[in-house]
Automatic annotation (TrEMBL), chain A:
PANTHER family: ABC TRANSPORTER PERMEASE YTRF, MEMBRANE COMPONENT OF TRANSPORTER-RELATED. It is a multi-pass membrane protein. Residues 21-237 form the MacB-like periplasmic core domain. One of its GO terms (molecular function) is transmembrane transporter activity. The keyword Nucleus does not apply. Keywords: Cell membrane, Membrane, Transmembrane, Transmembrane helix. It is found in: Cell membrane. Pfam families: FtsX, MacB_PCD. The chain crosses the membrane at residues 21-42, 264-295, 316-345, 357-377. Residues 274-387 form the ABC3 transporter permease C-terminal domain. Belongs to the ABC-4 integral membrane protein family. This is ABC transporter permease. The lineage of its organism: Bacteria, Bacillati, Actinomycetota, Actinomycetes, Micromonosporales. InterPro entries: ABC3_permease_C, MacB_PCD, Macrolide_Exporter_MacB. It comes from Micromonospora orduensis.
Length: 394, 305
C-alpha cells in the first residue's frame, strides 16, 4: 500500500470517530500546550531577570566578603568605610564607588507603617546602579558626611506610607528615628516576585548610627570599561585581602551574576518542562489505549483487508499512522494553544512569558514520537491478527 | 480439463487447532483439486470442516499436515506477507456477511484489493467502476453499504472479489444472508461470472438445491470428504445455468441440509465423529436456519454454519 493511501485511510478513520479522536487528542493537546506554556514562562522569567541585572548598569563590579557561589553561607562583613576609602583609591574615582549596609526596618508615617529594607548608601548610588528619581532629589555628599537624617523612598514605600499625600518634606520614622523624605524613586517593578520598590535609601553614616555599627555589607564599583573590569576586580580584592588577611573577598561582574542566575533559572525551566512532559506522557497512554480499542473495534475490517491482500505491515502502518496523526494534530493544536496562552499570560499578568523556537520544535517532535511509541503496540497487534479469527469477530 | 494446471491442489491436507491445550482436528486428510473454471459446491453439516477448508483454499490459513498448492505455490513455503500477496493475486472472497467497509462507497470498497496491489487511485476507480458495471451496479458507484440492499451489498462484495481477476472465487454461504429471490439472483450472477470469465467458483452452501446446480459437489463430514461428484458433469462450462428445480426460487428451502446436519454423523465415518471435539455447540447453530445466521466464532470451523 502506498504511504499516501495509508495517510488517507488513517485520516478517514479519525474522521469516522470525531468525538473520540478529539478527546484522545485533548490529552496530547493539554500536554503539549503545558510544555510550551511552562517553558515560555521559564524562558520569559530568565530573560526578565537578565534584563534587570543588565539594567543595574554596565561594567558593574560587586565586591563582597566570602565567595559568590550557590550554596555558600553569607559571611559577616568586616568591611568599614575606611575600606571603602581604600577601594576608592584603587579605583581612582569616588563617583564610581557605591556601598550598602542594609537591614529590615519598620517605616512609620503617622498611623501608617510598612516593613521595608533600609539601605545605607553613598550619594553615588544613582550613578553606579543607574537609578532615577520620580520626585525630589537624591542624597548628597553633604548628607552622607553629616549623617543627615534624610531618606529617599522606593515607590512602594511612598505609596504605603503616603497614599494620599505628597511625601516630600514629610517625616518618616525608621527604627524609631525620624528622617525627612527628600525624594522618591521611579518605580522598578518586580523581579522573581520580589518588589524592587520596597526600599528606603538613607546616608550610610546615618544608617550605621541607626544600627550602631561600623560595617558596610558590600561595595559596588562601576568600572570605566569592560576590558579592564577583571583586572580592576583583582586589584580591589588584593587591597581588601591586605587589609583583612582573615577574610576572603570576591569581586563578581554582572556576567558572572547572569551566569549563576541563568543556571538556576535554566534548571527551573527544565523542571517545569519535565512536569508538563508528564502530562504529555499521560496523553500518550490515552492514545495507546484508544488505538487498542480501535483495533478491537475494527477487527473485522482488519480481517477483510488481510483477506483481500493486505500484508501485516500494511495493517501495522495504517494503525501506526493513525496514532501518529492523532498526536501530531494534537501536537500542533497544543502548540497553538500554548503559544496563545503564553502571549495572554505575558500581556495580562505580571508573569513574563517568551516563546522559543526550540520549545515548539521539541513539543512537536515529542508529540510525534509519542504517537510512534504508543502506537507501535496497537499497530503490531493489528498487523499480527489472524485473518480467519479477525473475519469472524463481531 | 485435466490438461490445465490446477488452480488449487490439496493433498492429504489436515488442520489441527490447539484450543486451551486440547487438540481439535478440523480437517483430517483432505485431497482436492480445483481447476480453472470449476464450479464446486462444498456441502456438509456444521462442524464438518467446510469453513476450515475454505480458509485453507483461500490462503487465509495454513494446513498443519499435507501439501497445499495455490496458484502453483506451496503455501507452507510462504511467509505471511507472501501469503497476503498470493491471496491478492489469485483468490477472491465472498462472505455470507458481505464484509464491506462501512462509510466507504461501493466503488472504493471494490477498489480495496487494488490498493494493496499498488494500483494508482485513478486506475483503481476505473477498474472498480467497470467491475461494478459487470455486476449490474454501474449506477450505484458512490453509494455506501448502508444505502444499499443486501443483494446489492453482496454484488459489491462480488465485484470486489473479482476486480483483481483472480483464478478462484471462494464464496462462503454467499446467499445465506439474503432472501430467496435476491439469493437466487446473486447465485445467477456468480454462475454467469464463472461462465464468462473462467474464474473457478467454490461455494460453501447449506442449500441442497443450490448445491445441485454446481458442476461438482463435495460433501464433507467430520473433517473428511465423504463424497465428491467430480467426475460427471464437467464438460459443460457455459451451460450449467438453471436447472428446472431452481426456477421457483422462493420455495427453495435451505433448511433441508441444516436440519439433518447433527443427526448424520452416525454414517460411515461415525467412529471419527467424536474425535473432532466439537462438543457443546454443535446442535445449537445447526438448526438455527442457514439463511439468517452470521458466521459463528470461537470454534475454528463452524463459520460456515
Amino acid at each position: 500500500m502506498r504511504i499516501a493511501e495509508a495517510w488517507r485511510v488513517a485520516l478517514d478513520a479519525l474522521r469516522a470517530n470525531r468525538l473520540r479522536s478529539a478527546l484522545t487528542m485533548l490529552g496530547v493537546i493539554i500536554g503539549v500546550a503545558s510544555v510550551v506554556l511552562l517553558v515560555a514562562i521559564g524562558t520569559g522569567t530568565k530573560q526578565q531577570v537578565e534584563q534587570q541585572v543588565e539594567g543595574l548598569g554596565s561594567n558593574l563590579l560587586l565586591v563582597v566578603p566570602g565567595k559568590i557561589e550557590v550554596g555558600t553561607a553569607p559571611v559577616v562583613s568586616p568591611l568599614t568605610l575606611k575600606d571603602v576609602d581604600a577601594v576608592t583609591r584603587v579605583v581612582g574615582d569616588p563617583e564610581r564607588v557605591a556601598v550598602t549596609v542594609a537591614s529590615g526596618a519598620t517605616a512609620r508615617a503617622g498611623a501608617r507603617s510598612d516593613f521595608t529594607t533600609v539601605q545605607g548608601v553613598l550619594e553615588t548610588t544613582p550613578a553606579v546602579f543607574t537609578r532615577s528619581l520620580a520626585r525630589g532629589r537624591y542624597l548628597t555628599g553633604t548628607d552622607v558626611d553629616t549623617s543627615r537624617r534624610v531618606a529617599v523612598l522606593g515607590d512602594s514605600v511612598a505609596r504605603a506610607l503616603f497614599p494620599d499625600r505628597d511625601p516630600l518634606g514629610q517625616q518618616v520614622t525608621l527604627a524609631g528615628v525620624r528622617f525627612r523624605v527628600i525624594g522618591v524613586f521611579a518605580p522598578l517593578g518586580q523581579s522573581l516576585g520580589v518588589d524592587r520598590d520596597d526600599e528606603v535609601h538613607v546616608p550610610v553614616t546615618a544608617a550605621q548610627r541607626l544600627w550602631g555599627t561600623q560595617r558596610v555589607d558590600g561595595i559596588a564599583v562601576k568600572a570605566p570599561d569592560r576590558e579592564r573590569i577583571d583586572e580592576l576586580g583583582e586589584r580591589i580584592v588584593a587591597e581588601l585581602n591586605r587589609r583583612h588577611p582573615d577574610t576572603e573577598f570576591s569581586a563578581v561582574t554582572q556576567q558572572q551574576i547572569l551566569g549563576v542566575l541563568g543556571d538556576i533559572l535554566g534548571v527551573l525551566t527544565g523542571v517545569l518542562a519535565a512536569i508538563a512532559g508528564i502530562s504529555l506522557l499521560v496523553g500518550g497512554v490515552g492514545v495507546s489505549n484508544i488505538m487498542l480499542v480501535s483495533v478491537r473495534e475494527r477487527t473485522r475490517e482488519i480481517g477483510l483487508r488481510k483477506a483481500v491482500g493486505a500484508r501485516p505491515r500494511d495493517i501495522g502502518v495504517q494503525f501506526l499512522l493513525e496514532a501518529v496523526l492523532l498526536t501530531t494534530i494534537g501536537g500542533v493544536t497544543g502548540m497553538a494553544l500554548g503559544v496563545g496562552t503564553a502571549l495572554l499570560v505575558d500581556a495580562l499578568s505580571p508573569i513574563p512569558a517568551a516563546i522559543t523556537w526550540w520549545s515548539l520544535a521539541l513539543a512537536f517532535g515529542v508529540s510525534a514520537a509519542v504517537g510512534i511509541v504508543f502506537g507501535v503496540v496497537p499497530a503490531q497487534r493489528a498487523g499480527r491478527l489472524d485473518p480467519v479469527v479477525a473475519l469472524r469477530a463481531e | 480439463m485435466t490438461g490445465s494446471p490446477p488452480a488449487i491442489e490439496a493433498v492429504d491436507v489436515s488442520r489441527t487447532y490447539q484450543l486451551d491445550g486440547v487438540s481439535v482436528e478440523a480437517l483430517r486428510g483432505v485431497s482436492l483439486t480445483v481447476r480453472p473454471g470449476d464450479y464446486v459446491a462444498l456441502v456438509g453439516p456444521s462442524g464438518s470442516g467446510k469453513s476450515t477448508l475454505m480458509h485453507l483454499l483461500g490462503g487465509l490459513d495454513r494446513p498443519t499436515g499435507g501439501r497445499l498448492v495455490i496458484g502453483g505455490r506451496d503455501v507452507n513455503a510462504l511467509s505471511p506477507p507472501e501469503m497476503a500477496t498470493l491471496r491478492n493475486e489469485t483468490i477472491g472472497f465472498v462472505f455470507q456477511a458481505f464484509h464491506l467497509l462501512p462509510r466507504t462507497s461501493a466503488v472504493e470498497n471494490v477498489a480495496l484489493p487494488l490498493v494493496y496491489r499498488g494500483v494508482s487511485a485513478r486506475q483503481r476507480r476505473e477498474r472498480a467502476a467497470a467491475m461494478l458495471g459487470r455486476v449490474g451496479l454501474g449506477h450505484r458507484l458512490d453509494h455506501r453499504p448502508n444505502q444499499m440492499s443486501g443483494g446489492e451489498q453482496q454484488r459489491v462484495a462480488i465485484a470486489r472479489a473479482l476486480v483483481t481477476e483472480p483464478t478462484v472465487l471462494l464464496a462462503d454461504e454467499p446467499t445465506g444472508n439474503l432472501d430467496s429471490v435476491t439469493g437466487a439472483a446473486v447465485l445467477e450472477l456468480l454462475e454467469r461470472l464463472n461462465a464468462e470469465s473462467g474464474v473457478a467458483l467454490v461455494m460453501v452452501t447449506h442449500d441442497q438445491e443450490v448445491a445441485a446446480r454446481a458442476q461438482r459437489r463435495i460433501t464433507m463430514r467430520d473433517g473428511v470428504v465423504v463424497a465428491d461428484s467430480a467426475a460427471h458433469d464437467r464438460p459443460l462450462p457455459v451451460d450449467h445455468g438453471r436447472p428446472e428445480t431452481l426456477v421457483p426460487a422462493p420455495s427453495a428451502e435451505p433448511r433441508s441440509v441444516s436440519g439433518s446436519g447433527p443427526g448424520h454423523p452416525s454414517g460411515g465415518s461415525g467412529g471419527a465423529a467424536g474425535a473432532t471435539g466439537r462438543l457443546p455447540r454443535e446442535p445449537g447453530p445447526s438448526h438455527a436456519g442457514a439463511d439468517t445466521r452470521e458466521p459463528g466464532r470461537g470454534e475454528p470451523e463452524d463459520g460456515a454454519t
